[in-house]
Amino acid sequence: MYALVDCNSFYASCEKMFRPDLKNHPVIVLSNNDGCVIARSPEAKKMGLSMGQPWYQVKKNYLDNGGIVFSSNYELYADISNRVMNILTELCPEIDIYSIDEAFLNLHSYKNNIDLVQFAFDCKNRIRDWVGIPVSIGIAPTRTLAKLANRVAKEDARFDGAVILEDKKMICHFLESVQIEKIWGIGKKMTDKLNSIGIRNALQLSKAEPRLMGSNFNVLLERTIRELRGQPCIETNNLSEPKKQIMVSRSFGKSIKSREVLREAVSFHAGRAAEKLRFEGQKCRLITVFIRSNPFNKKINQIYSSNFMEIAHATSDSRIIIKTANNILQKIYREGFEYSKAGILLSNFTEKLGYQMTLFGKSFDSKESENLMRTVDYINIREISYLFFGNQGYRNTWKMKRHIKSKRYTTKIEEIPLTK
DNA sequence: TCTGGGGTCCTAGGACCC
DNA sequence: TCTGGGGTCCTAGGACCC
Question: Beta carbon of A121 within 7 Å of strand C?
Fold first, then answer.
């Protein structure tokens, strides 16, 4: 059996934790640049706000009706997430952290020795009491079914936040009431395709022949069908699995024409990406940079420009990565466009051990490079001061908007909440 | 005025090999 | 009329996820 534990309206719940005065008030959290709605408290959901809706479209109405809004505060959410995951790991060491706010627990090793209902409520209560975040729990024979159970636990108040699907008959009955687009892994395109051949609910899908569906559509669908039938076949994404790519990209606070300012933004992202790469203990060989205009603005000429460069030896040196990113930018920049976003993608990783040696030239970052980067990271992590590279610039005219951010209550000594 | 960011996996098709 | 067969590897792009 698998349990899926998922925090309810996670970002909004994090904000509410530190603002007891907002209890029972609608609270939402916005994406970067205060662009879209990405988390809604139950009260905000009732007001009809939907996920991903542009903020400017709902702003007036929402605020007029007493809604509360926050810019995203990832430092806070990441810290709260760690606390939740630590508790879950204690309860079940076979844990697969799937995203910032949800995790699968593999309950197989418990066999029949636990009362699943008891287990679910223990989890739920402990996280509520120790951290302060409400969670929902779905337990079922496969991950796909656990996902569905979780969804029902969230949506139907009668279950009090926990749904356990065990009995075969019960599962069939349950699947019949589920639309296929609610199934994990079935997106919009697949929904349309399946609807067109008359498959509308999860029970119908589970009765389709997996092999045949696999060859007519794709293997992902085949796996999903098997999972719906109670046969686990979606692998764990082992927690220690190294990343395969690292991306840093941001929309700008306002659009940019100047090559110079663009260069600062790209350098800044490149520096951040290099930092992430070092924390992953990886080195990369391929660097891709892209710049683009705002696709929503129909009045301007659109551009999406990108290119990549391979570096001779795998590196995690910020200087090399920033320099390469700038060379790519030189190639892709076109005069006369308004750019609204830039990004960098690092890929082709080689773990620190086990390099491919190059025939000519050096194969490794030099000792000097390693030492320098370690020192820079040391200083930056501890915020003794903030070191950056000249290219990264100081103007920051492109930085994103985050006008209504809450405090970093748990990670900044100056921002710890005080009682009056 | 104003529309996020970071990932994974799969597939089709091209290049290349014998 | 008619132009092999079987493979691998790589990449770009699609679909999906939170």
Answer: no
